[in-house]
Write a structure and sequence with these properties.
3 helices, alpha+beta, two-stranded parallel ribbon, binds S-adenosylmethionine, 61% helix
């Protein structure tokens, strides 16, 4: 729907624990404002958001370490002499 209407902002009314919100935001890159009447669900949504951000950051750091070690191996290896 956002592609068809050239829109990138969404208001998720009745967002509950924020499952749809997180998918639209982290999965599709949309700017999402989530609203829910139940403070317990809002707190849970915030907790899940935090866990997702933490997991994504951890994954990013892991990839950076792998990239760094690959670059280290490439730098240390000698060029192959074909003669
Ligand atoms: C079936 S749940 C929605 C689940 C959520 N969209 C998801 O993806 O996980 C419906 C939600 O609407 C919220 N709600 C109901 N009436 C509301 C109102 N007037 N204003 C804000 N939220 C409301 C409820 O608290 C409940 O969390």
């Amino acid at each position: 729907l956002c592609e068809q209407t050239d829109c990138n902002r969404v208001v998720d009314v009745g967002s509950g624990q924020g499952h749809l919100t997180r998918f639209l935001s982290f999965g599709l890159g949309l700017s999402v404002t989530a609203i829910d009447a139940d403070p317990t669900l809002v707190a849970m949504a915030s907790k899940f958001d935090g866990q997702l951000v933490w997991a994504l950051e951890k994954e990013k750091q892991k990839k950076a370490v792998v990239k760094k070690s690959i670059l280290g191996v490439i730098k240390k290896s000698k060029p192959i002499n074909k003669n």
